[in-house]
TrEMBL record:
Domain of life of the native organism: Bacteria
Pfam families, sorted: Imm10
InterPro entries, A to Z: Imm10
Native species: Pseudoxanthomonas winnipegensis
Protein name per the record: Immunity protein 10 of polymorphic toxin system
């Protein structure tokens, strides 16, 4: 089963230490969400604990986890994440993640944050703007 929802809320936060991307189906009482968090630098303890990769959390998943993000695509209004089998198992899903963006609020910032995370983690990132495929 693919973890799928429509994101009514998109949040991108960045500070000196990390980039955090959050998407949720509702601002007040989300039942489905995705949070991606990526540190800008890792220390020896992070590496020892295998916490030196992007952190993923979904609402309703078994647990959050580090790593296993294999590809990210932001095509039009659809964000899709391909995950390793181990990561899917830890998150309690059998396929990837697909999120329809109901709002274009923060879309440019979302794209920039995803590019930044993927570049830091050497993860393929595929993108197109809404309407790029229109005839």
């Amino acid at each position: 089963m693919i973890y799928r929802f429509t994101a009514e809320v998109v949040s991108v936060e960045e500070d000196d230490d990390c980039v955090v991307v959050g998407l949720a189906d509702d601002a007040a009482m989300p039942s489905r969400h995705l949070i991606l968090q990526n540190a800008k630098a890792y220390d020896e303890q992070d590496r020892h604990l295998q916490m030196d990769h992007v952190h993923l959390e979904i609402g309703g998943g078994s647990e959050s986890c580090y790593g296993g993000l294999e590809q990210v695509s932001l095509l039009g209004d659809v964000l899709a994440l391909s995950l390793s089998a181990e990561t899917r198992g830890r998150l309690g899903i059998t396929e990837g993640i697909e999120i329809l963006l109901a709002t274009r609020d923060h879309r440019e910032r979302l794209q920039q944050a995803l590019e930044q995370i993927c570049a830091a983690e050497k993860i393929p990132f595929i993108q197109s703007m809404p309407g790029d495929n229109a005839e």
